[in-house]
Design goal:
By secondary structure, the protein is of the alpha/beta class. The chain contains eleven helices and ten strands. A hairpin with a 6-residue loop joins strand 1 and strand 2.
C-alpha cells in the first residue's frame, strides 16, 4: 500500500520525527534484521535491491547543475573531472551516476578505460522528452546503443527513465519501458527504473512491478524548500514502502541541493536516511576531492 505500511502507523512515524533528526523509526524495515552497529561507509559494497548488482553505498554524481548535455562536472574540464573520479574510485566509490542530460559519458569512459569492468558500476538515464538538445526516439534501444558507444561499454548496469514528473509515467513512457525490458533480457542492461521529481511519480514507482531502482529526493528537512517532492513524513513513508517491496532506493538531494552545507546538517541528513532504512545508497554530486573526503567522513560516522 502506498498510503500506509503494515505495522507502522502515521502516529508512530510523526512521533519518531519529534524525537529529533536521525531518530530510529519504530517498525519493521527491509534491512532491520541486519542488527545494530551496522556500517554505512560510502565504500561499503552493497547489493542494489534484488538486482544482483553490487556497488558502493555512495555514488559519485556527475550532473551537478546539469543541462543540455553538460554539468558543473564536465564544464570544469577533463583534467579536473579525471582527478575527481580517480580519487573517488581510489577511495572505494565505484558507483558512477551519469545521464545523457549531463554529457558525462565520454568523460567517464576516459577515466575507467584502463580498469577491469568489474571494478565499477555504470548507471545512466534516458531523457524522454523533446528539448533543444535532444529529440528522443520514443524508446530505449537507440539511446542505449549510443550510450554504449559513448562509454565504450558492452553493458550498462542500471538505466533509469530520467525525471518522472507525474503518476502517468508508466503509460506515457511504455515504449521506453518495453525496450529497456527487452535490452535487459539480452543482457545489455542489467537493471531498470526511474528517477522521480514528483510525489505522485514516486508513489507509483514504489509499487510498480517493472521498477527495480528508484532515484528519490530525500533529506531530513523535506519539502520543496529543500528540493524534495513532499514533506519528510510523506516521502519517508513512501520510501519505506518501496524498500519493503524490494526496490533499490538511491537517495538524491541528501544535502538539499546545496542548502544543507553545515557539518551538522550534512550529518543529520545522512543519519536520518540511513538510520531510518530509507535508502540503500545515496548519490551526491561532489565536485572536489575534498568534498568526496568530507562525505566519506560523515557517512563513516553514521551508526545504527
Amino acid at each position: 500500500m502506498v498510503d500506509g505500511i503494515q505495522g507502522f502507523s502515521r502516529r508512530q512515524f510523526v512521533g519518531s520525527l519529534a524525537a529529533g533528526a536521525g531518530a530510529l523509526v519504530v517498525g519493521p524495515t527491509a534491512s532491520s534484521a541486519a542488527g545494530a552497529n551496522r556500517s554505512f561507509k560510502g565504500s561499503d559494497i552493497i547489493e542494489l535491491g534484488k538486482t544482483g548488482i553490487k556497488a558502493s553505498r555512495l555514488a559519485q554524481g556527475t550532473g551537478y547543475n546539469g543541462y543540455n548535455r553538460s554539468s558543473a562536472h564536465t564544464r570544469a574540464g577533463k583534467a579536473a573531472f579525471d582527478k575527481l573520479m580517480r580519487h573517488s574510485l581510489d577511495e572505494g566509490v565505484n558507483f558512477i551516476d551519469m545521464a545523457d542530460l549531463y554529457g558525462s559519458h565520454p568523460f567517464v569512459r576516459d577515466v575507467v578505460k584502463s580498469l577491469p569492468r568489474e571494478k565499477y558500476v555504470l548507471l545512466t538515464k534516458i531523457w524522454p522528452r523533446k528539448a533543444d538538445w535532444v529529440t528522443p526516439s520514443g524508446g530505449a534501444k537507440e539511446e542505449i546503443d549510443r550510450f554504449r558507444k559513448e562509454l565504450d561499454a558492452e553493458t550498462i548496469d542500471v538505466c533509469l527513465i530520467h525525471c518522472m514528473t507525474n503518476d502517468k509515467w508508466p503509460t506515457e513512457f511504455e515504449r521506453i519501458r518495453d525496450e529497456l525490458s527487452s535490452l535487459k533480457e539480452k543482457g545489455v542492461v542489467r537493471a531498470v527504473g526511474v528517477s522521480c521529481h514528483d510525489f505522485g511519480a514516486l508513489k507509483v514507482a514504489a509499487e510498480h512491478p517493472w521498477v527495480e531502482v528508484i532515484f528519490a529526493r530525500i533529506n531530513h528537512k523535506g519539502g520543496k524548500e529543500f528540493a524534495c517532492d513532499a514533506s519528510v513524513e510523506e516521502v519517508s513513508e513512501t520510501l519505506r514502502a518501496a524498500r519493503n517491496n524490494k526496490k533499490c532506493v538511491v537517495g538524491m538531494k541528501i544535502f538539499g541541493a546545496g542548502k544543507l552545507v553545515k557539518p551538522e546538517e550534512k550529518q543529520a541528513s545522512l543519519d536520518y536516511v540511513f538510520k531510518n532504512d530509507l535508502v540503500d545508497a545515496v548519490t551526491i554530486g561532489m565536485l572536489k576531492v575534498e568534498e568526496v573526503d568530507d562525505t566519506l567522513k560523515h557517512m563513516a560516522a553514521v551508526t545504527a
